[in-house]
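Margin note from the TA: students keep mixing up input and output lines. Inputs are the sequences; the output is the structure of the whole complex. Example:
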Amino acid sequence: MLGPVLPKEWLVQTTFPRLMLDHAKARPDAAALREKSYGIWQTTTWAQLETLVRRMAGGLAEAGVRRGEHVVVVGDNRPRLYAGMLAAQALGAVPIPLYEDAAAAEFVFPIRNAEVRWALVENQEQVDKLLEIRDQCPQLQRIWYDDPRGLRKYEEPGLQSIDALVEAGAARVQRDAGFFDAEVAKADPQDVAAMFFTSGTTGNPKGVVHTHFSLLDRAAAGQVFDKLTAQEEVLAYMPLAWIGQNIFSYAQWLACGYVVNCPESAATVTIDLKEVGPTYYFAPPRVFEGLLTSVMIRMEDAGAFKRKLFHACMAVARRVGPDLLDGKPVALLDRIRWKLGDWAIFGPLRNSLGFSRVRVAYTAGEAIGPDLFTFYRSIGVNLKQLYGSTETAVFVCLQPDHEARADTVGVPVQGVQIKLADNGEIMIKSPGLLKAYYKNDAATAEVLTADGWYHSGDAGFIDDSGHLKIIDRHKDVGRLAGGAHDGALFAPKYVENKLKFFPYIKEAVAFGNGRDRVCAFINIDMEAVGNWAEKRNLGYAGYMDLAGKPEVYELIRGCVEQVNADLAHDVLLAGSQVTRFLVLHKELDADDGEMTRTRKVKRGFISDRYAVLVDALYGGKAEQFIETAVTFEDGRSGSVSATLKIADAKTFAATKKAA
Amino acid sequence: MADPETGRKSGDVILDIKNISLSFGGVKALTDISFNVREHEIRAIIGPNGAGKSSMLNCINGVYAPQQGSITFRGQTFSHMSRRQVAEMGVARTFQNLALFKGMNVIDNIMSGRNLKMKSNLFQQAIRWGAAQREEEEHRAFVEHIIDFLEIQAYRKTPVGRLPYGLQKRVDLGRALAMEPQVLLLDEPMAGMNVEEKQDMCRFVLDVNDEFATTIVLIEHDMGVVMDISDRVVVLDYGKKIGDGTPDEVRSNPDVISAYLGTSH
């Protein structure tokens, strides 16, 4: 099933439920979903899935779900939640996946905004959250849960297990076998298929409305681009509410008919990854970073011989590996060296990471560090980048095989047109663009022009080879004012990313727009810095203590100055060098509103919340006391206080070379 | 104590302890202790250090033989039972200081709790053939349910010694559950844990009680935990019973207050 560009008619005529029925008819006994339960991978075939979806749709119809209504889906990747989305779509209802790790209060807006009457949830945790906000969402009628554990004694009106839903549906299907097909036949590909609430850095989230057509067109574009077949294996472990996971494990799953594997629990993902051995893999950079960090830490603890062998092989890999993957000419001797390394280190390493069978791996969502990117390419993992967002149904730009680079996001994929607005903003035209923001015409008009161009909000340009390069969010790109670099470009994300590429720095927040120089907050990486401290017999009591150690400040200063030296090479960005920094006493956390659920720092919120610290940075103070309210994991709140030191960093004169 | 809301907790006495006295030489560990445990309840034994809580548990468990008194379990009365007899009757326990096989992985540790349920002999198990293999698979499936229940799927193959303390406690509980006990004795299940681990453990104890209808007798120092999750509480001090009743009754008992807070003279 590779090669041919899918005919337009095929896309225009189909919907998600119809694709499911097609697969069930063509390959009833092929695996559709697998879930590890009680330690054993259990398979759901396409035929079994069809039966389940028919029954769930019957149950939903019995309960009163109507065409065009919304159904929220909250939970990890679970086969019955997938089936639930298909069942809702079969009835013409619109599933809204929500982030399962969100606090209860965060559900209120989407549920009220979309007038949701129905919810499909995974377990007690999610049921508790919905019950907590029920008085604020009186229209919420039914909550169906997948896992009954701990819920036996709940007596809430409208609370039911998915088992009961399936049972009610089975009765309906028996009474009226033709109803499901009739409902599916009523759907038009231009009907709304799903809605995703964007985690928006400011204001209320916005519901991004996608049709069957917009999602499936992009799914197919990606399928053709990477020649995906029904034989692919995918591990679904990111939140379903994230469009990336939804495209990879739902839209493309139904478009290609491959197997989606659901891990046992969030804690077992690395084990499951190894067992499944996915062939098609998608993860944000932080997942790749986490995997690399764990490898490096384990290597540091290995014996001297193994360490030596590892570093020798990795040196070969860095030199030769990326060229080999890019299909560039490589000297025979180097090929042999790499092959030896592959036999000794890379192969076993890929295996232990679970990447032995990966044919295509993508990273997106954030910029990826060049070292990190090169590491995976050099050991033979075909890691590539893509560009897209919730509003574009992901696939806008993709890197072709042999053209993967750390600093670009690829070439426009089939069907996409890109142009740059006069102010440098990237504009996109694509069949995968959102239909609208739900009940928010003002916001829709802001991003969609009358002639169909979408304002991406990103600043960037297309380089000589036709690859798109992103600098930063368009609105975040600022200018310095006053001082030595008056009027110079300031791209905070660019600076932050450079800082974050060091393993010791987990998060960074750079300030400088409208100011005379750049200052930054740093969050240390507890694992990496903790390990570093242990190696030096440096005792510490916890995160706050470690973050405040003078030795740690020196370590971070080294990183900052390296970034400065690097920035100095680029005339445009030389003014963005970090002059002063401090190491924050607490980790930036989405629960405190400092980051989005996809772990992007909310710069404006942080600069308000820590205004005293920002003032101290620019006021030239040597230290500053701060007290901050925090929310603990169990939902209670308290406060932490600390006196933070502020350090200066060396800056460098700009060199001539322009990057 | 019948739960007024669900009526689930029936009042049948499953374990009746009558006039137990235990001494080691001249040291009187327990003096004339009587209390009972009803089916499906969570019964706590509390008291200051050295009050005789663990000794009490060890008497029920057959580790110590009390000099006087009797223990009635499901209508059968004993003055002393061997540990094996007690286990075979469906009483399992966890330990204050953990007694896991540190070098073995989580699965094997929990499997060891199935020991009493295994019918095939050592030789059959060693060659793992026919009935022995089928039997092992059945037991393994049971162990998987426990692993799922305690949410330790990520550590199946990890040697127990490498796990953090809170997780080891969970494995210890898992091994006790593997015996499918009717009565579960927990010796300070929350000791040495941080707040989050304690909350997790509380949830598991309540879930065990709820899902498997297991009767639970627990010793605990953390008063908050005890008052939150137990149905009835026995208070010991210097080997004597000084209070017995619901958490509210015990909390307002003047003897208990003075034992815990000291008396003003």
